[in-house]
């Protein structure tokens, strides 16, 4: 959360945020929309990478519209029309957002337990009232003069990151981990996302305040394709050495789209933060797809806003929209968002509060 205060302060001409209420007031009219989404379901499903497949290779936490299923065929499913509720605070947002689960592997006997997500902080210094879930950002350019963005068309989808990565990807850091101290549990730490305080790999030390994982998506689109075979080629990051975009796009992907970003807070406090687990270069965490390095961090996005709603919000940035303070959108209560849940499409134990002999699906660890 703290990076949002920093960026908002830069835009307002100040970087001092000793008073969180003052920071919120000075932040209004900024360049991003930020809101929470509660946990919809935890299951092995991925309608982008593995459409139609029950029990996909690895476990995800999914948030958003409850029309989420294993297909999400845009020719037959229109999330705003087929969803009966959304786990996101924005009532008109029936998009789906999902990320891989993290598991703790016991150094004693090798069994696994899922690391729970916890709510992120708000600009007023309190914690969002949500069950697990993630915090979602939609951003327009932070630099340059052209702030106009064009919202995604119906059926649009994309991913950021690659679960097959075993080394740090080239270019700007777009998927990263921040190790939080106990005092940073609410704020999320200081500084912009994926800066020098963050690492592409899992932290190599205990994180008593949790681990904040950031997933940043591209900001430019080819203007033609709703998807691509690798689910990434139809979009591109803006030129430059920073993941957060300016107002330029390459000629191959000329359409400036809202830049989506996730913040996921994993609760690695308590027993998970035992220093004994971090000796001799070892650490006990592993992604649900078997990655102990952390380099394979990734996220999936499937657009599902009601017609015109997101465009109104993006056009309102700088005047009447900032974070959840946006007169262009309807906001539901945290209780209503938390109540939007659905059962697994293929039932199995996910490792919440119980130890598993192997990762769900028998995924090998590498």
UniProtKB/TrEMBL annotation:
Stretch forming the signal peptide: 1-18
Chain ranges of the DUF1996 domain: 46-305
PANTHER family on file: DUF1996 DOMAIN-CONTAINING PROTEIN (PTHR43662:SF2), PTHR43662
Statement: the UniProt record of this protein carries the keyword Signal: yes
Organism: Podospora fimiseda
Domain of life, per lineage: Eukaryota
InterPro entries named in the record: DUF1996
Protein name: DUF1996 domain-containing protein
Keyword set, alphabetical order: Signal
Keyword Signal applies: yes
């Amino acid at each position: 959360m703290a990076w949002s205060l920093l960026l908002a302060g830069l835009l307002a001409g100040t970087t001092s945020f000793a008073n969180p209420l003052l920071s919120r007031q000075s932040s209004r009219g900024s360049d991003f929309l930020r809101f929470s989404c509660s946990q919809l379901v935890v299951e092995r499903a991925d309608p982008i990478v593995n459409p139609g497949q029950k029990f996909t290779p690895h476990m995800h936490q999914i948030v958003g519209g409850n029309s989420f299923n294993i297909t999400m065929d845009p020719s037959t499913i229109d999330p705003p029309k087929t969803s009966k509720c959304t786990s996101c605070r924005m009532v008109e947002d029936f998009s789906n957002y999902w990320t891989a689960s993290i598991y703790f592997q016991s150094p004693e006997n090798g069994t696994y337990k899922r690391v729970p997500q916890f709510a992120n902080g708000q600009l007023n210094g309190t914690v969002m009232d949500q069950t697990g879930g993630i915090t979602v950002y939609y951003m327009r350019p932070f630099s340059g003069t052209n702030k106009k963005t064009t919202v995604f068309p119906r059926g649009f989808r994309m991913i950021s990151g690659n679960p097959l990565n075993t080394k740090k990807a080239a270019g700007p850091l777009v998927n990263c981990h921040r190790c939080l101290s106990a005092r940073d549990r609410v704020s999320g730490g200081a500084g912009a996302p994926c800066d020098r305080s963050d690492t592409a790999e899992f932290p190599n030390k205990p994180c008593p305040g949790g681990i904040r994982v950031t997933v940043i998506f591209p900001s430019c689109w080819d203007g033609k394709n709703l998807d691509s075979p690798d689910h990434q080629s139809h979009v591109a990051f803006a030129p430059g050495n920073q993941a957060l975009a300016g107002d330029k796009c390459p000629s191959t992907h000329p359409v400036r789209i809202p830049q989506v970003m996730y913040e996921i807070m994993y609760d690695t406090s308590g027993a998970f933060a035992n220093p004994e687990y971090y000796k001799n270069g070892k650490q006990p965490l592993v992604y649900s797809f078997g990655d102990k390095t952390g380099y394979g961090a990734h996220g999936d996005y499937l657009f599902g806003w009601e017609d015109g709603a997101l465009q109104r919000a993006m056009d309102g940035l700088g005047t009447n929209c900032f974070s959840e303070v946006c007169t262009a959108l309807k906001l539901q209560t945290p209780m209503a968002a938390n109540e939007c849940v659905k059962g697994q499409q293929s039932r199995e134990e996910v490792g919440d509060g119980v130890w598993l002999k192997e990762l769900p699906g028998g995924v090998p660890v590498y």
